[in-house]
Design a protein that fits this description.
With 223 residues, the chain is an alpha/beta fold. 29% of the residues lie in helices and 25% in strands. Strands 1-2-5-4-3-6-7-9-8 form a nine-stranded mixed β-sheet, sandwiched between helices. It starts with 6 loop residues before the first strand and ends with a strand. The model has no long low-confidence stretch (mean pLDDT 94). The structure holds S-adenosylmethionine (SAM).
Length: 223
């Protein structure tokens, strides 16, 4: 499952990539890392209503509907966070989670275990440099995170590489034109048109998932 020559060390159920010098690959802690114990409450009570002008339960409902037919697939998530995917992904899938934040991933380990996922794996890694082999995954997820990546093109290159032909990339992301409450949302906000164009440049076939939830856009892109 790992890219040729990649070594990982596993500590407390998280897999860390080993760099050439033998050190573990670590990342500048994301803000949420320090507040990982509060992350879910902050998302529900502050980020969804105030920043997105949306509703978290509706968000889960939209994604549940999109993923309800996905069973026994190899699913990769970019930026797993604290494991929100347990709210919409059926637990008979083979799940691989990735994030730069060990604090949030440790929460995700527990969430996935409690939700009945067996053999889920969690990697401390950046979405623009995945440690996995080519053509491995049937579904890739990226929820509320595309805006945080420094280089979205590198991320899409990596998703395309590790996903099998015909795999589906499912995303939810705040976009400029839906931000009606005009809140300050962190990261780089794209428009739907820009995202459609970026997908096209990487050979992905873009489709809007036709639901509205505040600033959030939902889309799928087929490899
Ligand atoms: C708003 S949270 C979303 C988390 C989760 N998907 C959810 O819906 O709750 C953004 C996540 O992006 C992660 N992140 C930021 N930059 C990243 C990168 N370069 N590679 C992987 N994850 C990253 C953060 O650690 C954080 O977990």
């Amino acid at each position: 499952m790992l890219k040729n020559g990649t070594k990982v060390i596993s500590k407390k159920e998280l897999h860390y990539v080993v760099e050439d010098g033998g050190n573990l690959l670590k990342f500048k802690p994301w803000l949420g890392d320090a507040f990982s114990f509060l992350y879910d409450v902050i998302m529900a009570k502050s980020i969804f209503p105030n920043k997105f002008g949306g509703d978290m339960n509706q968000h889960y409902g939209i994604l549940r509907k999109e993923l309800q037919g996905v069973h026994e697939k190899r699913v990769l998530e970019l930026a797993t966070g604290s494991g929100s995917a347990v709210n919409f992904l059926p637990n008979d899938n083979q799940y691989t989670g990735t994030d730069i934040s060990p604090g949030l991933l440790r929460k995700a380990v527990k969430s996935f275990r409690n939700a009945g996922f067996t053999n889920a794996g969690f990697y401390v890694t950046s979405a623009d440099n995945l440690p996995f082999d080519d053509n491995l995954f049937d579904i890739a997820l990226c929820i509320l995170s595309l805006n945080f990546f420094n280089d979205i093109n590198k991320v899409l290159q990596e998703v395309k590489r590790v996903a099998a032909p015909g795999a589906v990339f499912i995303c939810s992301v705040p976009v400029l034109e839906r931000n009606k409450v005009r809140s300050t949302i962190r990261g780089t906000l794209y428009s739907e048109e820009e995202l459609r164009e970026i997908c096209k440049e990487h050979g992905l076939s873009y489709e809007t998932i036709p639901f509205k939830n505040g600033a959030l856009l939902y889309f799928r892109a087929i490899m």
